[in-house]
Amino acid sequence: MLRSLVAPPHVIEVAHDRDAADEEAFTLRRNLSREKLEEALTNHHVLWIDAVDIDDDEIRWLESTLSLHPVVVGDIKRDDRRPTLRTYPDYVFLSLFQPNVKNTTINGDEIHVLIGENWLLTVRKESSTAVDGAYDRAAANTDYWYRGIGYLLYMVIQSVVDSYYPLLDRLSNQLNSLEEKAMNDGDKALQKSVFRIKQQLINLRQMVAPQREVISNMIGEERIAASPDDRDLFRHLYERLLRVYDVIDAQRDLASNVLDLLESQDASKLAKAVGRLTVLSMIFLPPTFIVGLFGLNFVTTAPEFEIPISGAALFLFIVVATLLISAGIAWFFRRQGWL
Question: Residues 6 or more apart from 210 whose CB is under 8 A from it?
Answer without folding.
Answer: 82, 83, 84
